[in-house]
Task: structure prediction
Amino acid sequence: MAKSRKAQDNSLPVRSTASIKEDESRLIFEGVMNKWLVLNNISKDFGIDLAVEITKTLSDSNQLVTAKKFSVQLKSSTKEYDGKDHCQIAIQVNKITYWRNLFEPMMLVYVDLTTKDCYYKWIDDAFVQELNKKNKNWIAQDTITIKIDRKDVINDKSLVDIEKYVFNWKVSNKSILTPGSFFKYSEESQRLIRTFVGLTERYQIDVLKEEVQELKSRCSQSIFTIAVVGLTKAGKSTLINSLLRQDISPVGVKPTTGIPITIYPSERNRSTILFKNNTEIEGGIDSAFLNKYTSQTSNENNNLNVKLVSVHLVNTFLERGFAFCDVPGLDDPDKEIRDITKTALFNVNAIIYVISVAPFRFGDFSITNKIIEDIQSLSGRLGRLFLVFNKIDALSTEQLDEVKDYIQHTLRRHGVLEYLPIEPLFISAGESFESRIASDDIPDTVTMLEEKLWEYLLGQNKTGLHTLIDNCLVSLDVFDCLKKTLQNKIDSSERKAVMSSEISVLRNELAKFSAEIDEFSRRCYSNIATHIDTSFASIINYLDNHLRSQPTGAKFIEKKNISIYLENQAHNTISEIYNYIEQELAKLQKAVNKWLFENLKQTIREDIPNAYLPLNINHVRQYSSQAGMFFNRGVNVVGILEKLLYGVGWVVDSVIEIIDEIITPDHKIKEKQIVSIIKSAQSGYVQISQNVLANIQQYLNVSCSSMKEKSVIRVETYLDNLSSQVAQLQHSISGPEKRQYSNYLKELGTLELSVTSNLTYLKSHTNGID
Result:
């Protein structure tokens, strides 16, 4: 029997040390909070131990309950005071992200069980900013160490500050974007759209088929890409590393192989090497691994046949739906590499063009014709081009001021400045990278680039998260269209005569508007032809006057200079024409969409089916938003600008070849020579003009025909839909059809709530920039 009792005693529960410390810390905390109401323990707390409600003591010793509360997480220790001015606590990162989503203030409390003191820290925007300053990618860690100042002790005096803080507290408009969140949201958006498509097919809903299919394709276009390009050794890889605050893009003494490197957001760090035979291997993100495949040192002339390097990175900058594209140099001697670069630049959302000013220190820097040609080759994309002059740390203050003046003057002279989104920026990517890696809380030169880039991209609504938000909004619009269309079908009655009349009117208006598009094409071509004639005549007239101003007996201007003048002026005129065409086509696109909206809205009434169909046509010229598509081979990247400029230099050179260098005191011979030069120049410009106008005529015809065709298809599809329903209006909807539509609308309503919820979460990450 004794043996049995002993076994029973040993089976009694044991109170752990952790439980004892937890209860003791709670009693100490409740003691310092004696003025207020400490609520019961919170079950399933996820990092919350208590809640405190602020109360006011009244004159009759009663308390006024204010409904102002804050949550508390208690941490305690029995360690003796070490003399430091702060306490340290290790906290799981997922708890911090949870606390930041609370709808009431969150206080972290450290209880010193030895001194019975309580120290506190608010988990708020200021706290997150403090973490960001120390380490931008803290969110990728499992735990972080939080320091609580020992001056922030809870006592009667600090309770006044705590009360004031709680009463003034507002819900943050920013949520912390955790690693992999972007792709989780993207996958959820795709899942919801797939569910919608499946629901629509299951119920055999045959309206808005085009819009439903467009929704399916939109989800794959969420990543927006920033290309970093420049001359060799300009420091573009260092700039990417500085922006990411990580050593990712290869930097070395020898140049890289020219292999494009794309850097994506991810839930874990890894890289993928894709070879030309479509096999791939996975590795880390350290420079040692990446340099094996991307540097000339380890992979000279790309002997390993690497096709593409993809780096998947846990990074707060990328997590908003961005990808970086480290493309080869524009001055690479390999034509294949230059073609890869140009193909990439045709598809990205923003371009950072990096130029090193370090050679200016030795008088060896200039904005060469090659740089100007590269920039001008991006005509039509200059509005997304950020010119960045790097390595200013190599120059003195005087040299930097001097090179800035030179750059501004040169870019202005070539007509570049006016098309850029911002003034050129001057930075030291190397110094910024070193400062950021050291976690120095000091503004650096790359900060201005970040601010301008964010301002541009957010202003253009070009973050991946904004695209997911747009997808949600479009989904809700389509849902709304379907609900109103089907509900109107259920409730519709006879309207056949009125609708048939309005359809006839719209067909007549469509014919008139198609004629207006044709007239636009003719008018635009006429304006361009007049501009070419006037501009070329002015150029030749200036040349004529300049030649005649040369003293008799002096040597004429060199043929090379005359050739350069004629070629540059022809390029400028053609660039002006190209920009004019793009602007006019954009205006036409807007006018077409406006016409569709206004005319179809005039035909449609809210009480008839299909009253809320989307009316805009898609843009005629679209840019792909997938970084992986930039480097597909066999893509014809020759655009209208290239066609317009093609052959200009050859024509000018052939004209100038017939000019002989002469030195003559005879005025008549000089006059004869000038006449010959001008006549040759005029002949060459006639050839150029004919080529330009032929290409412009073709381009205008294709663009206008495309707009007109899409407009006609949109209207005809719409009218056919209406006509089909007109024919159905004379028949009542059957009972099974009505039940089918009703059940579909019920399930669609449930799906709509899920999309709205997803939209709310997405918006919480885009109200500001952390």
Summary: Confidence is low (pLDDT under 50) at residues 4-8, 602-639. The CA atoms of residues 195 and 258 lie 43 Å apart. The first strand starts at residue 37 and ends at 38.
